[in-house]
Every structure is written in structure tokens, then in C-alpha cells.
């Protein structure tokens, strides 16, 4: 049922069948065994094309046993690499949850639990908002702006800014000069993997980040070849839909 939900979620976010969820696609292609009812032939074709997998009737155990990245041995190797105890429990966690399991075992997992911490709450101004939280009105339109270092979050979307003396270029001139390509989060969620560092060269469609939302992992791929000029997020960060998380130059 979770696979069906994930595909329904993708159909709403990206358009009907524009993005096949990994679990749903493998399910209709037969990689988890026989489905309750025969999948639609057109959906099988779309899933096969997008995931680069052929339909199969092989037993899932046979498929898994043939995968060198699955099983006890790879899990033990992963634990050993991270300097973690090799116990039955840890092997199970590493084998089933991969990187997320390792992060949890190392105490690096981020729990998305909201809690009140009065001692860490931002100082409030007379208007009842934090000192870095502003309401800006332009042409009778209201914008919620939060400033942090050299980043401004405007109505949930993140922008980089800088202020220097004798900098009188207009917004239009800046737009012409700047040629960086934005990499944005397609949906709200948590960054669970960052595959590159600033300065790395990346290729078109190479997976830069993985964001987790509604228990589903979505790859954020490079929209073009180039240098990953800046990265604004780290593993464990929460992001908003359409938030700029990197630039490619």
C-alpha cells in the first residue's frame, strides 16, 4: 500500500506517470514477486523505461542473492568501514537501512520531532517576531523574509545575497551577469545524502542530493554539466519546496 501511495504522491507532484517511484516501479515490473492483480501494460512500459529495468518473473530471493550489494557480507563490510561493532542487530540494521541505518548507529540521525525549547527560542521584538524575521510589503504584496548569514528565505524560497560598498548595479544588471544555474528542492523534506562537495565537477542528470519526504527518497539531479559552485544544505537539513540548495556554474 505504501508503494501505491508513493506513486500517487509522485503523480500529484510531478504529473501523472512523469516520475515512477522506485518501489512502485519495481513492484509492477515483478521484482518483489507477483502483484495482487496484473499491472497495466502501459504502466509496465513506462516503469521499465524510466527505471532502466526489464520486467521479470524471477523469484525475489534469487534476484536478491545475485545482488552483490545485498546480504550479510556487504553489511559487515559497511560496519567495519565505519568502525561499528559487528553484531547481529547491527548487521540487520545496516543491511536493511543502508546509509540511514549507519547514520543512526553512529548517533548522527536527525529526528524530525518538534519540541519547545525556551532557552533556544529566538529573541522576540515588539511585533512578536524574531529579530531576523521580517514582513516586507512591495506594491501591496506581503513577503515574509527571514535573514540568516548571507541567505534570505522569502516566502519559503531561499536566495543568496551580499552587501558591499559602491555596489550600485541594478537588479536587471545582476540577472544578466549571473549565469549560475539553480538546483532546487522539488518538495519539502529532509536531505539524507549529499553526494558532492562545492567545487566538484558534475554531469547532467548526475544525482547531487537525495531528499526524503513521506518515507520516500527522491533524487535531485544536476540540471546541466558544470561546476558545483555552492551548496547551501547538509545531510539532515530540512528544505522547503522550490528552495535553492545549490548553484552550478
Q: What profile does the largest beta sheet have?
A: 4 strands, antiparallel
The helical percent reads: 25-40%
Judged by helices, strands and strand pairing, the structural class is alpha+beta
Lateral arrangement of strands in the main beta sheet: 1-2-3-4
Number of helices: 7
Quaternary structure of the protein: single chain
- Runs with pLDDT <50, length 5+? 117-122, 125-129, 167-178
β content, as a range? 15-25%
* Principal-axis shape: globular
Mean pLDDT: 83
- Roughly how many Å apart are the termini? 41 Å
Rg from alpha-carbon coordinates: 22 Å
**SSE order in H/E notation?**
HHHHHHEEEEHEEEEEEEE
Number of strands: 12
Index terms:
24% strand, 4-stranded antiparallel beta sheet, globular, 29% helix, 249 residues, alpha+beta
How is the secondary structure organized here?
Layout: H1 2-14, H2 22-28, H3 41-51, H4 60-65, H5 72-81, H6 88-105, E1 133-138, E2 141-148, E3 151-154, E4 157-160, H7 171-177, E5 181-184, E6 189-194, E7 201-202, E8 207-213, E9 216-221, E10 226-231, E11 238-239, E12 244-248
Antiparallel strand pairs: 1-2, 2-3, 3-4, 5-12, 6-8, 6-11, 7-10, 8-9, 10-12
Helix pairs in contact: 2-3, 5-6
Amino acid at each position: 500500500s505504501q508503494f501505491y501511495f508513493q506513486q500517487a504522491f509522485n503523480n500529484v507532484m510531478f504529473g501523472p506517470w512523469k516520475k515512477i517511484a522506485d518501489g512502485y516501479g519495481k513492484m509492477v515490473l515483478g521484482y518483489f514477486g507477483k502483484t495482487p492483480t496484473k499491472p497495466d501494460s502501459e504502466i509496465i512500459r513506462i516503469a521499465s523505461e524510466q527505471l532502466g529495468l526489464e520486467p521479470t518473473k524471477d523469484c525475489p530471493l534469487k534476484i536478491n542473492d545475485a545482488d552483490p550489494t545485498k546480504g550479510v557480507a556487504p553489511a559487515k563490510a559497511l560496519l567495519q568501514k565505519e568502525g561499528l561493532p559487528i553484531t547481529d542487530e547491527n548487521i540487520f540494521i545496516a543491511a536493511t537501512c543502508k546509509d540511514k541505518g549507519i547514520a543512526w548507529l553512529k548517533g548522527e540521525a536527525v529526528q524530525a520531532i518538534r519540541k519547545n525549547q525556551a532557552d533556544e527560542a529566538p529573541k522576540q521584538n515588539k511585533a512578536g517576531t524574531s529579530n531576523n524575521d521580517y514582513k516586507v510589503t512591495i506594491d501591496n504584496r506581503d513577503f515574509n523574509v527571514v535573514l540568516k548569514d548571507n541567505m534570505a528565505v522569502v516566502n519559503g524560497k531561499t536566495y543568496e545575497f551580499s552587501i558591499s560598498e559602491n555596489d550600485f548595479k541594478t537588479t536587471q544588471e545582476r540577472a544578466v551577469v549571473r549565469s549560475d544555474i539553480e538546483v532546487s528542492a522539488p518538495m519539502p523534506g529532509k536531505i539524507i545524502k549529499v553526494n558532492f562537495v562545492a567545487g566538484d565537477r558534475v554531469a547532467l542528470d548526475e544525482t547531487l542530493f537525495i531528499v526524503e519526504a513521506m518515507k520516500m527518497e527522491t533524487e535531485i539531479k544536476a540540471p546541466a554539466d558544470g561546476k558545483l559552485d555552492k551548496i547551501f544544505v547538509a545531510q539532515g537539513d530540512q528544505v522547503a519546496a522550490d528552495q535553492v540548495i545549490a548553484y552550478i556554474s
